[in-house]
């Protein structure tokens, strides 16, 4: 009886593997059917997976090569030789928040400018004038924001 | 000329031809043309990864030898030819060291942030071609996508710094994020002049547009801003505030030991390689050798340009002192941003006059 169960289980396991394999294959064909992934961007997608697996595999393999002799004092966080005082997961004043906000605005501006630059040669002077007005307004805003910004000390 | 895809495809087709007769009918999908495409892409990924990692080893060797000569030392001499294998030995040593995960760290974030940082930096290599035949993906919006993936890093650095329960790494992570987002804007604005003159976002078209004149001549200001932006993005010495040893121990990498630290250092050089490669594509004609192109293959031209540019960065490392954090932010927002805007104006003017 037990042997039968085991045999069934192993048979099921093989079947399961084949089904997963073919499912992966269907998934793969589905991914290829997406127009953006099909031709040009598919290698980038594959390389992203390879790039994520590479560090994970190195950290995993490292497990079999390194010694492990943990002591209590070795286990503390580093604070130049003294015993650490308190936690570091605190609400800390993030002095750069101003720049983070300006960054969010300007990142979008850069995207607009890039798209405009690609099609620049096929457009007339009106597009340049309107984009210059756009940049001018944003530069005024940036100057105002930078004047208001407080002193930075970390 | 045969490109990398055709080369790998011919090898894969040859290998499949050998095992063709033993494949049962149920598994026939494993040797269908779609599957062969997948094997070829995987093979290309392996080739590009190995070549780029070797390339990074060469760059670390160049840095160690060249900075040693600038400091009147000899640098590594013992392991391998002129100490070439010293980096490999150091990596092996780090691989065999104990991994210490301190108390109080957020273990999941602590490892995942690092994996994502390294993974996203490696992914950029798929979009950085070495020549018009040696590339992984030649996409329309290549430059745009490189920037999109390359500048994911501040987020991962910030959460890695936060997760370690260490005051130095917390401040280092914050500084690093602030520095990277501040210099990303001038970096990308300085590129717009080049895009405007080339009229494309594809790396190969930008390189081919420089067959008559390198873009460093019309947009020299752009190159100046770009190279400072790259220095700040890869945290090299005039801008290595996030890991200022005298103030912050090792910045956001303080609690990462053993091979984790090894991979962080490796990826820092990999980002340096990508930055230099971008500068070469955008301003120095990429793999084009001009009138001397017959003497060397395009890949060699590209690599030589990258190494020379990298040596200039090493020279800067040996000669420039580290700047303060408030100066850093001031330079980024109040000096480089207007300069990048001026560069765009010059490019618009030259392009409107029809000189480029």
Q: In brief, what are we looking at here?
A:
With 154 residues, chain A is mainly alpha-helical.
Verbal overview:
The complex is a heterodimer of chains A (154) and B (356). Chain A has 154 residues and is an all-alpha fold. Chain A has a domain at 97-152. Chain A contains 5 helices and no strands. The N and C termini of chain A lie far apart (72 Å). Chain B has one domain (97-353). Helix content of chain B is 66%, strand content 0%. In chain B, helix 1 packs across helix 2 (33-70), helix 7 (167-198) runs antiparallel to helix 9 (220-233) and helix 7 (167-198) runs parallel beside helix 13. The chains are: A mainly alpha (154), B mainly alpha (356). The interface between A and B is large, with 66 and 89 residues.
Q: List the domain count of chain B as a whole number.
A: 1
Question: How helix-rich are the residues of chain A, as a percent range?
Answer: 55-70%
Low-confidence segments of chain B, ≥5 residues, pLDDT <50? none
| Shape, principal axes of CA atoms of chain A | flat
Largest sheet of chain A: none
Number of strands of chain B: 0
Element-by-element helix/strand order of chain B: HHHHHHHHHHHHH
What percent strand of chain B?
under 5%
Provide tags for this entry.
heterodimer, A: 154 residues, mainly alpha, 0% strand, flat, disordered N terminus, B: 356 residues, 13 helices, globular
What is the element layout, followed by pairings?
The complex is a heterodimer of chains A (154) and B (356).
Chain A: H1 2-33, H2 35-38, H3 42-62, H4 97-118, H5 125-148
Chain B: H1 4-19, H2 33-70, H3 86-95, H4 107-123, H5 142-150, H6 153-163, H7 167-198, H8 203-208, H9 220-233, H10 245-248, H11 258-283, H12 298-319, H13 325-353
Helix pairs in contact in B: 1-2, 2-11, 2-12, 3-11, 4-6, 4-11, 6-7, 7-9, 7-13, 9-11, 9-13, 11-12
């Amino acid at each position: 009886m037990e042997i039968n169960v085991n045999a069934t289980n192993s048979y099921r396991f093989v079947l399961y593997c084949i089904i997963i394999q073919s499912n992966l294959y269907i998934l793969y064909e589905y991914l290829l059917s997406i127009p953006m992934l099909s031709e040009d961007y598919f290698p980038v997608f594959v390389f992203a997976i390879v790039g994520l697996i590479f560090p994970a595999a190195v950290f995993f393999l490292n497990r079999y090569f390194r010694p492990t002799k943990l002591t209590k004092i070795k286990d503390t966080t580093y604070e130049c030789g003294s015993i650490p005082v308190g936690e570091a997961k605190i609400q800390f004043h993030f002095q750069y928040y101003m720049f983070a906000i300006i960054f969010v605005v300007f990142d979008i501006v850069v995207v607009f400018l890039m798209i405009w630059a690609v099609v620049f040669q096929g457009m007339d002077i009106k597009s340049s004038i309107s984009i210059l007005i756009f940049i001018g307004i944003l530069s005024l805003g940036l100057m105002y924001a930078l004047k208001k910004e407080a002193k930075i000390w970390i | 000329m045969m490109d990398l895809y055709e080369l790998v495809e011919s090898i894969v087709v040859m290998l499949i031809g050998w095992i063709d007769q033993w494949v049962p009918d149920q598994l026939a999908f494993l040797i269908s043309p779609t599957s062969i495409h997948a094997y070829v892409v995987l093979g290309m990924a392996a080739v590009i990864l190995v070549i780029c990692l070797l390339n990074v080893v060469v760059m670390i060797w160049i840095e160690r030898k060249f900075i040693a000569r600038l400091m009147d030392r000899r640098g590594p001499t013992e392991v391998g030819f002129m100490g070439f294998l010293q980096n490999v030995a150091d990596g092996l040593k780090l691989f065999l060291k104990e991994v210490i995960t301190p108390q109080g760290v957020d273990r999941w974030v602590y490892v995942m942030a690092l994996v994502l940082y390294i993974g996203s930096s490696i992914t950029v290599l798929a979009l950085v071609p070495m020549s018009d035949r040696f590339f992984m993906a030649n996409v329309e919006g290549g430059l745009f996508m490189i920037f999109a993936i390359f500048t994911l890093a501040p987020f991962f650095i910030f959460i890695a710094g936060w997760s370690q329960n260490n005051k130095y790494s917390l401040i280092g992570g914050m500084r690093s994020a602030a520095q990277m987002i501040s210099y990303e804007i001038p970096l990308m604005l300085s590129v717009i002049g080049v895009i405007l003159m080339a009229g494309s976002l594809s790396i190969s078209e930008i390189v081919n547009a420089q067959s008559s004149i390198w873009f460093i001549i019309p947009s020299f200001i752009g190159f100046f801003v770009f190279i400072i932006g790259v220095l700040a993005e890869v945290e090299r010495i005039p801008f290595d505030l996030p890991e200022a040893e005298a103030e912050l121990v090792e910045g956001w990498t303080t609690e990462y030991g053993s091979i984790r630290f090894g991979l962080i250092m490796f990826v820092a050089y990999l980002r340096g390689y990508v930055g230099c490669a971008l500068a070469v594509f955008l301003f120095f004609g990429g793999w084009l050798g001009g009138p001397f192109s017959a003497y060397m293959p395009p890949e060699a031209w590209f690599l030589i340009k990258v190494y020379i540019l990298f040596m200039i960065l090493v020279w800067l490392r040996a000669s420039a002192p580290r700047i303060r954090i408030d100066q850093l932010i001031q330079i980024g927002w109040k000096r480089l941003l207007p300069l990048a805007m001026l560069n765009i104006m010059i490019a618009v003017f030259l392009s409107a006059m029809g000189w480029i």
